[in-house]
């Protein structure tokens, strides 16, 4: 075989090999490892525990329970909601001042989405809140409704989940509506109390006492 022919043969072989490599399918990406049964159970339990903290935050606001609200956050937790930006502890103090002026409030939590990664978690939930308060004239009461979201980062310490960072959004405020009658006009014992006189606390005490 002449030098020219050898060169041509090598060129053809190189081109053929290159085409074969180009036609070969790309190596499949490794499949994500499925969580073990123990990890899946831990994620389910963690989700339930995180949901309970979110509900406790709403319940604490509705009953003016400062301790219940504060127990949702780690001491160094940071908070941003509306014009407020600072520690979650300071935000709770701010929220309590607002709450203490209310005759009634009800916070509803929904659309809860939670992601777990070991001892860290991320969640988003929606809230819908109703506030009954004295009107500005001081002669009656008024209602207003609010909608928004709580977007939280969580840490689990010693088996306990709490919020380490919260971003709250205020997505909708309804027009103020004058109340037809004061909240106190409802029959005694038939409505929610913004204190530990509420049936939640009395019934819980009975349950914990085994009664």
Description:
- The chain is of the alpha+beta class.
- The chain is built from five helices and seven strands; from the N terminus they run H-H-H-E-E-H-E-E-E-E-E-H.
- The protein has helices spanning 3-23, 37-62, 66-70, 88-99, 199-208; strands spanning 73-81, 84-87, 104-117, 120-134, 141-157, 160-173, 177-178.
- Strands 1, 2, 3, 4, 5, 6 and 7 form a seven-stranded mixed β-sheet that branches.
What is the fold's blueprint, element by element?
Elements: H1 3-23, H2 37-62, H3 66-70, E1 73-81, E2 84-87, H4 88-99, E3 104-117, E4 120-134, E5 141-157, E6 160-173, E7 177-178, H5 199-208
Parallel strand pairs: 1-6
Antiparallel strand pairs: 1-2, 3-4, 4-5, 5-6, 5-7
What are the key terms here?
single chain; 5 helices; 7 strands
Radius of gyration, CA atoms, in whole angstroms: 29 Å
In which range does the helix fraction lie? Answer: 25-40%
Structural class: alpha+beta
β-strand percent reads: 35-45%
- Could you name the ranges where pLDDT drops below 50 across 5 or more consecutive residues? 9-16, 18-23
Query: How many individual β-strands?
Result: 7
How is this structure best summarized?
With 211 residues, the protein is of the alpha+beta class. It has helices spanning 3-23, 37-62, 66-70, 88-99, 199-208; strands at residues 73-81, 84-87, 104-117, 120-134, 141-157, 160-173, 177-178.
């Amino acid at each position: 075989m002449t030098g020219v022919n050898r060169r041509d043969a090598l060129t053809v072989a190189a081109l053929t090999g290159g085409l074969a490599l180009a036609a070969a399918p790309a190596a499949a990406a490794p499949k994500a490892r499925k969580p073990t049964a123990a990890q899946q159970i831990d994620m389910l339990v963690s989700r339930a525990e995180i949901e309970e903290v979110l509900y406790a935050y709403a319940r604490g606001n509705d009953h003016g329970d400062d301790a219940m609200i504060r127990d949702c956050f780690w001491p160094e937790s940071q908070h941003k909601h509306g014009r407020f930006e600072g520690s979650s502890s300071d935000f709770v103090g701010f929220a309590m001042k607002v709450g203490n002026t209310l005759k009634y409030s009800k916070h509803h939590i929904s659309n809860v989405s939670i992601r777990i990664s070991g001892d860290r978690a991320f969640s988003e939930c929606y809230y819908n809140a109703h506030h009954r308060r004295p009107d500005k004239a001081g002669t009656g009461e008024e209602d207003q409704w609010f909608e928004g979201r709580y977007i939280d980062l969580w840490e689990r310490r010693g088996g306990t989940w709490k919020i380490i960072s919260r971003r709250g959004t205020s997505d909708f405020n309804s027009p103020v509506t004058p109340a037809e009658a004061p909240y106190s006009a409802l029959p005694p014992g038939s409505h929610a109390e913004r204190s530990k006189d509420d049936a939640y606390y009395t019934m819980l005490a009975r349950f914990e006492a085994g009664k």
